[in-house]
Structures are given as C-alpha cells and as structure tokens.
Amino acid sequence: MISLRFIIVTGLLFLWQEPCLMQQTLVVRVVNNTNEELNNVMIYSTPFGQIKPMDSTAFITLKNIQNEVKNPMLYLSCKNINMGSYVSLPKDVDTIYFLINEVKIDKRLIVFKQIEIK
Amino acid sequence: MTQAERDALVNAFYQLRNGADLINDLATFHSDFFNFDNTADPTRLDIHFNLPDEPERDIFFAWHRMQMFEVEQAMQDINPNISIPYWDSTVDQSVNSPLWDENFMGQFDDDWGLNRNLGGNGELGTIAELNTLLGISDYLIFSDDTERGNIHAGPHRWTGGAMPTTASPRDPVFYLHHTFIDKVWADWEAIHQNSSFIRTSMLRYDGTYVFDGQTLPLVNPNNIIDPRAFGVFYAEDGLAVLDDYTVSNTYNAIENFYYQFLIEVRDGFEIPANTSCRITSVNEIVMLPGFVAASGSDFRAQIDNTQARTSGSSIVRNTKKFEALPSMRMVDFEGKKLGDDSSDIEVYPNPFLESVNIRLGQNTHSGRIVLYNMAGQQVKSEVFRDKSVLNLNDLRNLASGVYILNVVDNNGVVLHKVQLIKS
C-alpha cells in the first residue's frame, strides 16, 4: 500500500492550561433514569454493580483520585451489550452525580449528565 | 490539503458506509471489545485502558495502527490517491478551524447525526504534554500515558457526540485523530526504538474475523512497529521524506505516494525490478542520491496538474509554502552524516544532559546555532566564526524532552536541522 499522511491544517495556537489539581477523595452517586436494568456499572475504575430501572446507587467515596482518573470512563452493560463513555475529569469537586437518562444499545451510546458539586 | 483531496476523502467516508458499512462495523467492534474490566471476566482480551497486569496492555498503538490501515486500504480501493490526514490537536485547537468546515468534517455532524459539542468537554493536549510523552523511554509507560492523557483522550472528550463513547469510530474525525496518534507513536519509535509486544495476535486482526465476506489477515504487532511496514510515511511542515523503504507491492498492485507539497526521495528508497511505484506531488519532487529504480521496474514520478483543473483555478499550488523549503534540503533529523563532506554535521551526545558538541562540515565556518523546544521557542543561540567544532553549554536546566537544533548561515538559511533529546 502506500500513503503519505499529512497534516490537515496549520496554525499555531498556544493555550495556557491551568494545572489540574486533584483532590484526595470524591463522592460519586449513579442514578439510573432509564427503564432498563444496568449491569457492571463502573466509573473511574470503581465498580458500582447493578442498578435497577429508576434506581440509584449509594454515595460511594473514591480515594486516591489521582490514580482513579487515569481511567476516566463510565462503563455499563445493558442487555448483555457492554459500552462506555469518557467522562469529564473532576476539578476541585467534592461530589459527582452521574444521571444516566437513556441507553441506545444499537448505537452503543449512553446518554448521561454529569453534575459536579463543589 | 487541496480541495480535491478534501473532496476525495469526504466522498470516501460516505462510500465506506454503502453496502456492508465498514464505518459502522468498526464502531461496533471497537465498542464491543473496548474494555471488559467492568465485567465478570475482566481477563478478556480488549483494546483499551489495560491495567499493568494485563497481558494485552501493549496493544493500544498497534491495534489502532492496523485499524487506520484497514480504513485507508478501503479508501484506496475507491481512490488510490487518498491518504488519511492527521489532525494535530496540539496546534489545531479552534472550533473554527477549517477542519470543522461544512465542506470537510463539519458536514458529518448533521449528515451522520453525531451530535458533536466542540470544545464542550475537557481540554486538548498541548505541545508541552506531547513533548513530555516523547521523552518517556519505557514503551509501556509511554503507551499508557498517551492513551489516558490529553493527547489521546482529550480530543475524544473535546469533540463530543460519538467521539467520547466506545463507538467513537462512527465519527470520521476519529480516523484523523488516530492517525495523529499513530504519528506520535512513529515519532516516539524513531527516537527510542524501543517498542515491543508480548502478544502476537490482535482482536479483529487475528485471522478469524470476517467482514463483507473476507477474512481479515492475522497481524503480528511486532511486524508493524515501523509504519513503513504498511508503506506509510508521515509528512510534516510541507515536506515528505521517502527513505529506507523497498517497494514490494504487497498491498497494492501499484504503490502510490501522493502529497501536495515537496516530496524528497532519499537514501535507501528502492524500487526493484518487476515492481510498480508512482510518486506524485502537486508541487515538487526531488530525487536525492541513494534512490534506486532498478531496471525492469515500473516507476513514474509526476506533478499532478489536475488539481488546478479540479478547483477551477490555474493556481492551486501553494508556492508560498515552498519559499522556506530549500533551506530544509539538508535536514538531518537523526544527527548522522548526510551526503558528501560539505554537508556533514555531527551532534553528540544525543541524548544530552549538560552540553552538546557540534562538528561542522568543511564548508560551514560561520553562522549561528539556535536551539528550539517543541513549542517553537528559542532556548539557546550562539554565533560562531571560523570554527569547525562548537560547544553548547549550560543546558542542564532545560526540561527533559525533544529539542531542535538549527545551524544557520550568515544569510539566515538553515543549513542543518537536528533533533535532540534532553535526558
């Protein structure tokens, strides 16, 4: 085969990035607003198990956030289909609610909202 | 990219969704085998976010290189001049970038219902972050940090829509992003030459997966550490260097290298007898000593004038881009000797810690040495006169990472450019 792969556009834009200061603990609750049973729910490598339709988990405290955010994903299984999504990294946050509003199995898409409380 | 190249790429994406729908198949596969760490059997082979004790923890780069090649091959069946371009998200960070124009990647948002939210979540990686990654010497740490950090994960979150999900290959920009990630790996490997794999087979590319009636090949990741294994070269700053490669026609009956700007064919690029190769530029091709097209080979180098006709303009060529290029003819990115004695330069040690020694060629006696970091900032500059050996000292305080050293003559022409590593 063969290819010459090249950059699409050029133009430099340097942005100052604020240091991302992670705290030591983070409290997370996952709410299932769908009519489906969600299994194998995992966020930041922390298992939340099974969540019944229209139910929620307890508040779970995550420790060692610096390590947990190295896996910034929400995973779950629905009807034996496993899927996931990147989530925003917490910044100076105490509590996060993940509201799962819809699961589109054919598109492997989790529709959710992440609410952060400082 | 010329508009014709953009159109060809866009059209190819649309065509790939006809029939068996390769884009959808890749997205579903990528999602279904993304990660099983949350399931009852976390030991299952998967593609992403592997933990230090998982045997497939090295698979991220190699798997996506093969994925890009699968898509590019399918596109070249449609148009042999297509290559997947890369989105360098460390410099191209605007939501108003031409990348997102309606006549390019922007149109897929509505057409394919992607629901992007550009810039709505997280940050894109920076040149400093990339520089840090390229300075890591351990392959597994480099792979893990790249995958989990902003260079890889940043554009997934930043783009929104399908991109942050395990079905991210639904978005065409996924392929432009992962081609950049592939280039990052190629750049890292050029520096460290330390990639290694434990597994010898990969999901989808394990010799069992069937798509559209065809069984995909078994791929050993150890065989694709160099992108040349697929005939892939990465162009940068308007220059494509073809070197150390033997045309074999393994994947294409005619190996076709196409680029908008300058193509330099250099030492070790060989076209043996009974092989076919085309090298096409919209602007300029330079053949340098060491290039060999053997008797009996089918070889053609050509300037593509059809680009002008395609756009309806007689001037599509980016002549301005080339005004700065002649000074790059003798560029040496590896710090080793080039060509005849007049162009020699040796820079050592590399990697360096406190100082760097530069031994100049016979015809370079005065000028200026300039050291840049990967952000393009000048960090050191010294004028020299009537010297053949120079020393750059007091470099201990520089951050670890990649630097570019330029030797500039009195007319401001860059005679040599050498990539250095600060350890």
Automatic annotation (TrEMBL), chain A:
Highest taxon of source: Bacteria
Protein name: Uncharacterized protein
Lineage of the species this protein comes from: Bacteria, Pseudomonadati, Bacteroidota, Flavobacteriia, Flavobacteriales
TrEMBL record, chain B:
InterPro entries associated with the record: Di-copper_centre_dom_sf, GCX_COOH, Secre_tail, Tyrosinase/Hemocyanin, Tyrosinase_Cu-bd
PROSITE patterns noted in UniProt: TYROSINASE_2
UniProt keyword annotations, A-Z: Copper, Metal-binding, Signal
TM regions (residue ranges): none
A single MF term (Gene Ontology): metal ion binding
Record flagged with keyword Metal-binding: yes
UniProt name for this protein: Tyrosinase
Domain Tyrosinase copper-binding: 171-182
Similarity field: Belongs to the tyrosinase family.
Source organism of this protein record: Zhouia amylolytica
Organism superkingdom: Bacteria
